[in-house]
Write a structure and sequence with these properties.
Blueprint: E1 3-12, H1 15-26, E2 29-34, E3 37-41, E4 54-59, E5 71-75, H2 80-93, E6 96-97, E7 108-111, E8 117-120, E9 133-140, H3 143-153, E10 157-161, E11 165-169, E12 177-182, E13 193-199, H4 207-215, E14 218-219, E15 230-233, E16 239-242
Parallel strand pairs: 1-4, 5-8, 9-12, 13-16
Antiparallel strand pairs: 1-13, 2-3, 3-4, 5-9, 6-7, 7-8, 10-11, 11-12, 14-15, 15-16
Length: 247
């Protein structure tokens, strides 16, 4: 049994506007199958294909607070010119520069139209083949502990673990990386961005959450009510969902 990250879930007051922003930012398609939910997916997206981790924007009534999200996206670029062009295009779409204490760095820190932070990286060879999303980054206190939990939770390969970070990627060596980055300070508020995980068709929907609880996950009540998916938190409190679908 194992799970795969398939979506980054983003809460927004205006799911349509934020979903369209991310679809245009990533050169993907915006889709809305029901009111209050807008997805950004690459053309021909397949839930069983690990190359793309899509975005799902969910409407909520509360706006984002000033607290920085503990999960954010790093976008890939192929050259200095591409980085500059992408930053300019994103700002034209409604992104704004933000200061999260990064100081002088070669990447650019922006926020989407509702304040969700993300980075546009300078070109790095390691991210040449990831697609538009280079890394899904999760702030944490203990990368080694996160590596132990998520290494058992996911079927992705752990490529590196140090006191400062832990890095995963699909076992097929494609798509974005998942990085747990050592960051001062514990999690204090519910996040507006989290991972959605998918089980394999032969795995049991209830057995997977039970397995995760045995690894240190806890059940999470975010007001979801009776829903077919399961809301959990990892040992540091990062929210995530195990989707009901399997393909």
């Amino acid at each position: 049994m194992a799970l795969r990250p398939v979506q980054v879930n983003i809460k927004a007051v205006d799911d349509t506007a934020v979903g369209r922003f991310w679809a245009e930012a990533l050169a993907w398609q915006a889709r809305s199958a029901e009111p209050g939910v807008t997805s950004a997916q690459p053309a021909g997206f397949d839930w069983l294909d690990p190359v793309a981790v899509c975005l799902d924007v969910i409407a909520v009534p509360e706006p984002k607070t000033a607290t920085k999200n503990r999960l954010h996206l790093d976008l890939a670029t192929t050259s200095a010119a591409h980085q500059a062009e992408l930053v300019a295009r994103l700002r034209a779409l409604g992104a704004t520069p933000v200061d999260v204490g990064q100081g002088e760095v070669p990447w650019t820190v922006l926020a989407d139209p509702e304040g969700n932070e993300f980075c546009v990286l300078e070109p790095r060879e390691i991210y040449r083949d990831t697609g538009p999303i280079a890394v899904v980054v999760v702030d944490c206190e203990d990368p080694r502990a996160m590596a132990r939990f998520w290494g058992e939770a996911l079927d992705w390969t752990l490529h590196e673990v140090t006191d400062d970070h832990a890095v995963f990627r699909s076992a097929k060596g494609v798509g974005p990386h998942l990085e747990f980055l050592r960051t001062p300070g514990a999690k204090t508020v519910p996040d507006r961005v989290h991972l959605d995980l998918l089980r394999y068709p032969d795995d049991d929907q209830e057995a997977e959450p039970a397995r995760l609880r045995a690894l240190g996950a806890t059940d999470l009540d975010v007001g979801q009510g009776e829903v077919p998916w399961r809301c959990l938190a990892d040992p540091e409190g990062h929210e995530f969902c195990v989707l009901a679908r399997s393909s």
